[in-house]
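ok so I'm stuck.
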Amino acid sequence: MSKKIFVGNIAWTVTEDDLNATFSQHGEIEDLVILKDRYTHRSRGFGFVTFVQDEDAEKAVEALNGYNLNGRDLVVNEAKPPRKERY
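replied:
not stuck anymore, here's the structure
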């Protein structure tokens, strides 16, 4: 079963390849994305990493929360389910 984690406080200079290199040290990655602004296409400073194994995701959260990547300390925790529409 796969597990998705949230990665916040990502420096704008960090690419998906950089994030993949950092997180893949902790297990096999199923999916990885850094969200971008729809108009400027610049990083919004957060993204999601989905690990194939739940245990690998938990290890990554433990090891990488607070990890300094390109001058910024990452915020890494379990992703929450999407919010319901407010309207």
